[in-house]
Amino acid sequence: MKTYLLPCDCSREIPVTAADAGGSVPCPQCGRQVDVPKLRNLGSLRQVVAGDAPVARRWTAGHSTVLVGLLLAATTGMLSRLFPAPPAPQVDLDDLRRTLAATPYANIYGIWVTEMRQRQIAPKPTPAEEAYRQKAAESRAWRQRLQYAAGASLALAATGALAVALRSAAERSRGAGS
Ligand SMILES: [Zn+2]
Description:
Blueprint: E1 3-7, E2 13-17, E3 24-26, E4 33-35, E5 46-47, H1 61-80, H2 93-102, H3 105-118, H4 127-177
Antiparallel strand pairs: 1-2, 1-5, 3-4
This protein binds zinc ion.
């Protein structure tokens, strides 16, 4: 049986068939009773093509959200163009050179490498840099191990001191007791 789409005042299209002709059907969206045309006029309605489900063409909160989101995106996107990066101040190259000369190589290298990595344009380290990095990492590892060892040794010494103190206190009280 052919299915036709009966438009309701609320813009919902109600699927009807020839069996509904001349009667009325309730709108599934607004509940109104909608008159179905007589059988001979049914052909004036839009017919459902196979695979074409009746679509609710109502404006929903989701639509509003999409619209508001797009408008906001467009507005803020345009506003963001009002704030371009200000031009960099003029740099006194001699001053810069003096500052660089006074800064330890390790500091400059660390800052440079970090910055380059963040921008993902870090060049491959040269063999000298690779060697330096490895050496620095080794030194750091040894420094840490020895610092941990020093800490553990101090804890051991403290435990020993506590034991000595407890024992002498116990001996004193025993001496006082006898
Ligand atoms: Zn309706």
